[in-house]
Amino acid sequence: MFKYPLLAALLALVACAAKEEAPTAVQLALNWFPEAEHGGLYAAAVHGYYEESGVEVEILGGGPDAPVVQRVATGAVAFGIVNADDILYARAQQIPVVALMASYQINPHCIIVHESAGIDSISQIKNMTLALSQRPAFSHYLRWKYPFAGVTIVPYPGNVAQFLADENFAQQGYVFSEPFVAKVKGGDPKALLVADTGFNPYASVLITTEERIAAEPELVGAVVRASVKGWEQYLAEPEATNRHINSLNPEMGMDILAYGAAESIAMILDPVAQQNGLGSMTLERWQELVEQMVAAGLIKDGVVNATRVFTNRFLP
To answer: CATH code for 109-197?
Structure first.
């Protein structure tokens, strides 16, 4: 027993307070391997913004077809990163995930063609091979919108090897990834943004569930605000964060990460975000995406209510 009961009581109070102030530990699942498109999240971790907000966030790398929505919906992880169209697919299946912030106002997906092909827009693609993934909504939307006369569509290979070997080959990519790699390897890539076709889902969207928002609004708010702060830091000074990303994914060299960070500025801080705040979303954008996906036959009409798929409530 303690000889001094007052001291014992004081120590017990300090211990309890320390326990209560311990950061809440959560996991955040990415939809792809660590890259510049996740820079703001890693910046929030590297610079201690999550910890300052009372949250310990473990960021889990993803990959092809990473089941982020399913993991968030089942509670396997608290938060996830997906694109806006993934959220609409989920809501159409009655999976109650909610968008909390949109990192990218302009979607980075692109189609890369050879400069020598003389193509200035995706609508002009014809008489060539085009590599597209089967899953993303933009892939199906482009096939629905454009005739692609004489085009043979093949699976996306995941690299630029075939693009470099065939002048009559085009493929999907991220504007700050595949085009950069192709140019470094001696190719003549020209990136055509899918967003320029009018199909522009928010990208790198932070999600959680309706249930978590209702049960733990303070936690959700802390993660959102720290993530926004992380993106602000990353866009201003990305180098320290890029070193961390490179350590997690050595295939992403410091040169391509620096390029990605620089290219991201205009896509994240577009005029709307400059006016409304980084990460902000509008009902009009969500409603337009619903209508486009319905028109392309990707979701059924009337099954998704655009007012319920997102919230700006937790943004600073």
So the answer is: 3.40.190.10
